[in-house]
Structure formats: structure tokens, C-alpha cells
């Protein structure tokens, strides 16, 4: 998927994180994505729906 390709590029540039935090968008909740993170040993933290405060820095960075 495009999301996995993006993460692989980010890993090559920035290194592999121990944890990532995402919203509950379908791209981040798919079985394929969860399997990908598991293979890399990355803990996946999902934000609470409707709680934009926890995601505000990321949202601001991405201008969403």
C-alpha cells in the first residue's frame, strides 16, 4: 500500500521507530498495516476518536 511505502521511505531516512501514533483511519487499521508494523517490531498507538488534542501537533505539522 502507499502508506507502507511511505513508512519504508521514512525508515530509510529517519530509522525505525519503536512506536508510532496514528489516527483510526482505514489506512492505519488494516490487517496488512498491522502485520507490517508487527514484522518491524513497532508498537502501534491509536488516538482516541474525537480527541483532536492528542493529535493536534501531528495535524498541525501536516496542515490538516
From TrEMBL:
Gene Ontology BP annotations: DNA integration
Pfam families: rve
PROSITE patterns (UniProt xref): INTEGRASE (PS50994)
Keywords of this entry: Endonuclease, Hydrolase, Nuclease, Nucleotidyltransferase, RNA-directed DNA polymerase, Transferase
Taxonomic source organism: Buphagus erythrorhynchus (red-billed oxpecker)
GO molecular function, one term: hydrolase activity
InterPro entries to which the protein is assigned, alphabetical: Integrase_cat-core (IPR001584), RNaseH-like_sf (IPR012337), RNaseH_sf (IPR036397)
Protein name stated in the entry: POK19 protein
Ranges for domain Integrase catalytic: 1-64
Amino acid at each position: 500500500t502507499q502508506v507502507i511505502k511511505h513508512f519504508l521511505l521514512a525508515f530509510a531516512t529517519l530509522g525505525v521507530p519503536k512506536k508510532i501514533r496514528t489516527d483510526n483511519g482505514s489506512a492505519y487499521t488494516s490487517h496488512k498495516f498491522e502485520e507490517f508494523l508487527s514484522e518491524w517490531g513497532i508498537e502501534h498507538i491509536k488516538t482516541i476518536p474525537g480527541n483532536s488534542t492528542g493529535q493536534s501537533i501531528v495535524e498541525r505539522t501536516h496542515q490538516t
